[in-house]
Amino acid sequence: MTLNLIENLQKLGFTGNEAKIYASLVCLMQAKASEIAENTGVPRSKIYGTLRRMEKKGYVRIIEGEPTLFCCVHPEELILRIKSDFMFFLSETASELNSLTPGSSNFASESFYGDRIKV
Length: 119
Hints:
This protein has helices spanning 3-11, 16-28, 33-40, 44-57, 75-99; strands at residues 30-31, 60-63, 69-72, 108-110, 116-118. By secondary structure, the chain is α+β, with helices and mostly antiparallel strands. It has a domain at 3-75: Arc Repressor Mutant, subunit A. It has a three-stranded antiparallel beta sheet. The protein has a two-stranded antiparallel sheet with strand order 4-5. The N and C termini lie far apart (45 Å).
């Protein structure tokens, strides 16, 4: 697992721990949480929560049993999903930006601090 791979996964929306876990699962194919923790260096206390969030995002699958096993979504499937989502949001954003009218004062948004900003 290379630093470049981890950084690229982060650019695609993964957290640092998610990137390490996903890359590790690509190599391991399926593993117990303890094996993932050992292989990635992610603290065991963070493994289960991170894996559950990754399942909700569609990055991993959980195989219930004794022990519970985790496997990653196949990389090609993941890349197609990310690409599709990106293209959808890009198209939606372009459409919304194009619908704004220059000089209009009816657009307002909340800043992070709750201030109203008029454009």
